[in-house]
Amino acid sequence: MSELIHHTAAELATALADGSASSVEITQAHLDRIAAVDTDVHAFLHVNAEVSLAAAAASDKRRAAGAALNALDGIPVAIKDVLVTTDMPSTAGSKILEGWVSPYDATPVTKLREAGLVPLGKTNMDEFAMGSSTEHSAYGPTRNPWDLDRIPGGSGGGSAAAVAAFEAPLALGSDTGGSIRQPAHVTGTVGIKPTYGGVSRYGAIALASSLDQIGPVTRNVLDAAMLHDIIAGHDRHDSTSLKHEWPSMAEAVRNANVKGLRIGVVSQLDGEGFQPGVLARFHEAIALLEANGAEIVELSLPSLEHAVAAYYLILPAEASSNLAKFDSVRFGLRVTPEGGGTVEQVMSATREAGFGAEVKRRIILGTYALSAGYYDAYYGSAQKVRTLVQRDFAAGFEKVDVIASPTAPTTAWKLGEQLDDPLEMWRGDLATIPANLAGIPGISLPAGLADEDGLPVGIQFLAPAREDARLYNVGGALEQLLVDKWGHTLLSQAPALKVGAR
Asked: Which one from 52, 174, 179, 200 is the annotated catalytic residue?
């Protein structure tokens, strides 16, 4: 297997720039890796080698002419199947969209193509991004490269697993309540949820429009920053897109320094309900930052105790509305009852066959929450809690520059372990959900391995809206401190290197 797959995107960019590797060679190395291991991992739903190699050859031609479009021109990237593409199916992990090909590209995909990156394929996900384990995909679960009997997180487990298994150096994910950051936590990768509106959602198959955000999944913080710089920016096609001049995230990493940085540790996300090994790595990372000049401040954000309950009313309500378009009439699957039927009967049969159990559960919950007589009691009350969460964060950021917590309460659980207890799975998002309710950016990066099971643990940092660069500053600094401490990167120790040997 080519050593090219073990290089970071930044290292591959250097190799392309100095001519020591070509995009075709790099792309072929990753396609070979996918062919070798993805039967075990199942990170991808669709790979189009012909399209990928053609894009790579075009990149090499541009570089030969001295006309590279971007530092990452020619670097392969995996795309979560929630983002529509013109040259590959876009299913959102659902049977109701099986085989559907979009007539247009999502804006983040367009930006990747315009910067010369090479799409490798579409990654597996929980159906319509509903889940925390990628077990709710209609096409079968993805497996964690650290332990193939465990989940890779969700809903974007496919993107995280592809990066962790060295099948792709870069990936895009979507984060509605932690679907980028929680998979990063359990796979030892880096995941970023940008400020809401900082990256266009145009062409992202919607789950909850006020919560969804597209962001990078990578193996280190610099790679995430370089990818973020490409996909960020205003898009006239997205009414929620921010008109904001974003600073270079990559420069924030390269100039990372935590001296004098005020870091808040939230009491509500530190203690009961968290695995001991998760807390141990978190506090070690905080101590390391403090030893290098950061100021640690204890914070209390009382509304976070109610964030999960509010989220699981707001999200299903918005999902109930967004998924109404899958009606058997306009596009996607159509199931006609034996002997024919009315439009309503065809719609019912189609949704029964096309939607999985988790999607049906959330649609029913959301429709109920929006129904006459219950709107104020449930959805209205949840929105009030959301306002309280936003106010708590605003007050917290008056005292600190960034807020830190463990990314999730536990390490990766065994496949099937929580499928019969959706409430337990939902509670696992308690540290990531608040950022989506508040619209603020968050990052998860590896903090080490838990003592109990030797599995990856992530640390999360949150920043005020539009201050994404702060996350890259603290993330880049901590990453370097940890690598200096360990003498290696976390993923260099991963069993992912042995995936495919069985």
From this structure: 179
Closest CA to 186 of 138, 136, 227, 147: 147
Question: Could you tell me which of 9, 445, 461, 482 has the C-alpha nearest to residue 227?
Answer: 9
- 325 belongs to the catalytic site: no
Classified as helix, coil or strand, 130 is coil
- Does pLDDT of 115 surpass 80? yes
Burial of 134 (C-beta count, 10 Å sphere; 0-12/13-18/19+)? buried
CA neighbours within 13 Å on the CB side: how many for 107? 20
| Mean pLDDT for the stretch of residues 281-299 | 98
Identify the active-site residue in 22, 23, 80, 241. Answer: 80
Residue 80 catalytic?
A: yes
* Residue 498 among the catalytic residues: no
Q: Rounded to 10 degrees, what is the CA torsion of 284, 286, 288, 293?
A: -160
What pLDDT, on a 0 to 100 scale, did the predictor assign at position 423? 75
Q: Could you tell me the two tokens for 400? A: 């600190």
Q: Per-residue pLDDT for 427 more than 90? A: no
3-state secondary structure 319-351: HHHHHHHCCCCCCCCCCCCCCCCCHHHHHHHHH
Average pLDDT over residues 382-406: 98
272 pLDDT tier (thresholds 50, 70, 90): confident
Q: How far apart are CA 189 and CA 186, in angstroms?
A: 8
Residues in the chain: 502
Contact (CB, 8 A) for 349 and 335 = yes
Catalytic-role residue among 155, 159, 174, 241: 155
Residue ranges of domains in the chain, CATH in brackets: 3-256+441-498 (3.90.1300.10)
Question: Is the pLDDT assigned to residue 130 strictly greater than 90?
Answer: yes
pTM above 0.90, yes or no: yes
- Residues 6 or more apart from 276 whose CB is under 8 A from it? 451, 452
